[in-house]
Structures are given as structure tokens and as C-alpha cells.
Amino acid sequence: MFEFLTPHQAILIVVIPLLASPICLIVRHSGIAWLIALVASWISFAIAINLLNQVTTVGPISYLLGNWPAPWGIEYKVDTLSAFVLLFISGISSITLIFARKSVYFEIAEDRIYLFYTMFLLAFAGLLGITITGDAFNLFVFLEISSLSSYVLISLGSSRNALTAAYRYLILGTVGATFYVIGVGLLYQMTGTLNIADLADRMPELSDTKTVLISLGFITVGIGLKLGLFPLHVWLPNAYAYAPSVVTAFLAATATKVAVYVLLRVYFTIFGYQIFNKLVIDELLLVLGLIAVISMSIVAIFQTNIKKLLAYSSVAQVGYMVIGISAVTVTGLTSTILHLFNHALIKGGLFLALAAIFLRIKSVKIDDMAGLGKLMPFTMAAFLMSGLSLIGVPLTVGFISKWYLILATLEKGWWPVAIIVLIGSLLSIVYVWKVIEIAYFRPVPDKSSKIKEAPLSMLIPIWILVTANYYFGIATDYTISSALSAAKELMGVAL
Questions:
Q1: Is the peptide bond before 237 cis (omega within 30 degrees of 0)?
Q2: What is the separation of C-alpha 445 from the centre of its chain, rounded to a whole number of angstroms?
Q3: pLDDT per residue over 74-115, tens digit each?
Q4: Torsion of CA 92, 54, 82, 35, to 10 degrees
């Protein structure tokens, strides 16, 4: 019936949520806005599945907007890496929106809920656009769409601190976007093109020029701010801690991962892995990644607010991804791409479980979780099982990511780096155990005895993500083969 739409899937995946967003604004009804957002997200998820299947069977897809040939027109390009990222962005969004209805009613004033869904769809469409566009400036446009809507989403938090966190994110996000667009401008000055494929073709003969190398520095700093790369992460803990719980879950599972995707696309598609022979960026990334893994894990141990604990943990997890990039090998990139997907499942499960806890106890303080293992057994079991995946226990997705990262470090002969990766996992045991110890081994306070389990509409999405943590930790063929194919494409290795 809709066969005529099939050739246009690459644009529809972005356009559908983008058009649904103003409709939510027009209807101004919270229930209808939720339904519109849910339907739009699930349609995009179905398209993402189909795009990944197409890429796997017939190869990369190129979609020319207005039939203007690249590089004169804007091209949307879907290869294995972008299709893989589109899949988990749309999947996380779809599951989060099922969960969102009760959580949003609890945390956001009813007359502003329609605004939440409007901004959520804009952020979602922006992240999809970043992933699928084949134009460096168009990427900046989508980056700003997702960022501006994220600032609003964070500011909707019930605490006054939400406004401060959103403002800090706005300032640093603007600095990051400015650095990125300056870098792209320098590339345009040297090449006369903004098409990513065209830039990649022209880069080998220009990669020794100072202007091109300086542009790479600007882009690295700009994207580093967006992904929360240590020490450019200062906006992230407060943004996660004071945003509405659903917003925290969505951004933690998707936004920083898309920024890592952009970094991969810039380094390995535009500049090519040979650029690491001309600059010491790989060594810089390695050092920053190692510092992030250890220092941010230690900082997480001393947090009393679980949202901040998980936020600092996210900075440490970005460190693992950056270490994989710094290896500049197929195995290293495979570990990073795997962790993009796996960490989305892990943090999505943890933050949604925490949102359900907040619904019942109105707190995310560790001390207020005493006895929750008995009072909210299904929610706390989900938190525990997602926590085990974060640590990297065998049969979880977290183990698969860290296994490939250790293989990558050993391939390079980086024994000390492998040891630090293992130490990071041991530190994660400490901060996860802090929560589990209080929830399961502290007595239930008398005033908490009336706390009930989370609603089924929240438990189902949580447990979908928890189940995925273990399913993809056991049945690894699909994720590993996709990540390996994407890594080989980035490194220019024959498939």
C-alpha cells in the first residue's frame, strides 16, 4: 500500500518526528501529544530496522534531497554505522515514550506537558538528522536542533537548579557548536565543499596543511564538549541530575552516543585514519580516556545523589569509548561502536528504573532508598541487573564491550591500559554496590512501609531494556557483526 514511500525512508525517518513536533504544540493536549510522539517514534524505529536490513543486504544508501546531485545538494547517507546508530536512537526513544506518560505527569506541570513532547520530538529528530546527514553543515543544523530542544527539556525539571543546569549546558553547548562550525568553515575554505564524501576525497592532498589540521582541532574541541569528554564534561552531571527523569534517561542513552558517532565520522570518514600519523590526537584521546575512567569512577563513588552518580559514571564510560578510538584499529573501533549500543541499553535501564523509584519516594538520594529491595522488588531487581551490566559481568552487554576493548589494548601491546580498564570495572562495583547495599540490606523505615511497586506501564519498558542487556550479551552475533562491519568501513578494510 505504501510501497511508493520505500525509496524515501532515509528522509522520512527524520521528517516524521520533525513534523509531529509542531502538531503537539498546536493540539496542546497532554494525552494527544503523548500519542502523537509515541506513534512518530515507533514509525521511525520501524524505518530504522528496515534501513539496517537494506544496508546489510544491498550496501550503503544515498538519498539526494530534491534530486540535486552531491556535492551541490544535500545528501543523506546510510551505511552500516549510521544505520546501527539510527536503530538504537529510535529504539530507546520508542521505549522511553511508553514509560514517559506517568513519569511526566508526576514531574512536569500539566499545562507544560505538551511542550515536553514538542521538544522531545525535536531533540529526537535532531539526533536522527545528525546521524543520517552526509553534509557537514547540515550536521551542524541538526546538532543545534537537538541541543536547543535539550536545553528546554532540562529546564522543565521541577527543581530550580534545573534552570541553572540548562543555562550552563546552553553556554557550553553554544561554545561547542561554535568551535565545530569554525572547524567546518576552515574545511570549506580549503576544499570548497561541505559534502562529507567529497571532503573525504579531497582531504588526502590537503591533510598536511596547517588550516586543515587547525580545523580538526576546532572540531575535536567542539564535539568533545557535546559528548562530555573529560575535562569538557562540567555541564553533564547537573544536566542529568536536575532534568526530568525521562529526559535524563533519553539524553544519557542517546545524545552523548551520537556525539561519539560524529567524532568517528570526522576522524575516520572525513580525515581518514592516516590523520593520526600527522597529529598526536590518538595519544591525547588515550590519556583523556584513561583519566576519565579512573577519576570519574572515583568521583561517582562519593556521590549521594544517584543521578549524579550515574552521570559521572557516564563520563567514565565515554572514556572507554575514547580509548577504543585511540587504538586506531578495527578491534578498537568495534569496541567503541559496540559500547555506543550497549551503554545506551545499560543507562537507559538504570535511569528509567531510577525514574520509577523517584515516582514512589520523591527522592534520588541513596539514603532514602533503604529497604526498597522489599518494597519495590521488580524495580530494584531491574536496577541491580542493569548495574551488573554496567560493571561488565559475563552474559551482559557491558562485558562484551569491555572484552573487545581489552582485546584492542592487548593487540596494541598496551598492558597498562588493559589493567586500568579492569580497575575501572572494579571501581564501578563499588558505586553500584553502594546503592544495592542500602536497598537490600538496610531495614525498611516505618514511614516508608506504604511505598508501592512502580506501575506496570513503567515496569514493562524498564524490563524490555533489562532483557535486552542480557539477550544481546548472550546472542552477540547481530551486534558484533554490525559493529565489526562498521569498524572495517571506517578503517577502509575490505569486507
A1: no
A2: 37
A3: 878 888 888 888 988 999 999 999 988 888 888 787 778 888
A4: -30
